Amino acid sequence: MQREGRINMGKRLNSFKYFAPLVQIVLCPVTILFLWTVFTGPEVIPEVKEELVGKE
Length: 56
What we know:
Layout: H1 2-27, H2 29-40
């Protein structure tokens, strides 16, 4: 009975190793920053001040 539990546990751990790279990619700071920039977008549009722009 206990041996069956170990085999089940081994299969479960074996299947987890395939998901480990996905978890690492999702939790990677570079990925988080990239997704943040993609989904937030350029919300703040800088206003150009007339004084600073050279008038011709």
